[in-house]
Input
Amino acid sequence: MRLFPAVYSLPLPGGPLDFTIPHHNRVSAIVELVDGHIVTGSSDKIVRVWNPNNGQLVKSFSGHTDSILCLSTHSKGWIVSGSMDNSIKIWSMNSDDCIYSLEEHTSYVTCLCVLSDGQLVSGSLDNNIKIWNIEQEDCVMTLQGHSSMVSSVCVLSDGRLASSSYDKTIRIWETKSGDCVACLEGHKREVTSLSLLIDGRIVSGSWDKAIRIWRVNEFNGVCEQIMTADTGGVLCLCVMSNNRVVTGCDDNMMRVWDINSYACERSIEGHAKRIVSLVSLSDSRVASVSYDNTLKLWNLTQTKGDHIIPAHKHSNAVRAILITNYGIISGSADNSIKIWNSTSGKCEKTLEGHKDEVLSLAMLPDGRLVSGSNDKSIKIWDLTAGVCDKSFIGHNGGVVSFTILSDGRLATGSLDKTIKVWNLQSGKCDKTFEGHTKRVSVVRVEGNGRLVSTSEDGTMKIWNIQTGRCEDSQPFDKNNPILTELDELELESYGFDDYVCACDEQGRIAVGTSDGDVCLFIPLHTV
Output
């Protein structure tokens, strides 16, 4: 089975998450290309193209000098991006460079759409809407009327343009003449988003927590229905192929609305910060991006299959993870250890006591948990009571790896380049093994009882536990028969730059991410 930085997982009540694609910066915009690839724009000024089936990065474009705020696509296959640098840039998958640049707005470009004749429409913090001939890099018309930022633009079924604004209004425009033919009022706060329903009506979202359905005729429009998100302002929305409306809110929640009953069908947790952009994909999934630096893909029509442990997440990166009879146990850079119910996904206990990042975890034969930290300490925890039984210090650096010896003692590897063997009853260090010249990465017990360690110095060393003497030292090779044997003897826990993961006999995989999420993958044949 292959793991990607995108996390695949099983669906808890609320909505199945297909996978997450972490970003290193705030993600603010998303759009789908005709071929199904997903495009994101973020505060690092880069446009990225992703494969939605495996979460892999396909291509990236650089050229903006400030954060990207909005994206659109053109019928010629182009990607269009708008930025806080006041510019619009057009990109082709066949080129690494920007092929056109449009620069007449006097403030941030906040929204984009494309007319049926191929002309581009942009809205801005300068309160104006502009219509562009892209290939001539020429603004052919400026539409004025809004008194605050233009937040969204969309093309109606009759070819006219609708725009929303932080002035609390929606305006309808004739694109040939540039005339505003209708102004729709009703929202009590800033209107953030617009989309077109299958029947041609407009749906709008606002900071006033309301979703309004509008029917627009030739010269005016009427609000036919109001739906309310109880706890969060509506920041973005999209329309699914089954005519459901999905909203992303300031309370970090997604909601699915039935347009026939005007009721909220589902409220979905998953993001840790506000959701700022949504898109309905051609394969019926929905993609969301959030200020928690993630892109998430959801199968909202699916009732069986895969799901996530929705996290009352760690507030910092997960550094260690275990699958145990108690549930999923995670240690984090937020100095805490959390125990998660692997069925419900709820955090059942939080263990606090370390003063720095928790770097390593292991289960003792008696059912207690041992943890190692960058605070140089080792702690033994009673998981039933949720308390620390013992704590001892001996290393001069963070404790990064554990293994249990056959006599019940504990061997630890550290950032201080040493390995120590501990008597867990007394808390005393019985032996210290020295020889590595850089941090010890892993310590394990070989089949014949010797201790095996690997280090960032590029070596694997074999130690006599009784004497503490290094009996062999070899260049590290992951194909070494000794390491292969260890893989077959135990359940492995792996660490990568962006996530850590562990697996068990059932084929389940627990994953902890750099943004603090804890997820569980359960193979479909076990569901």
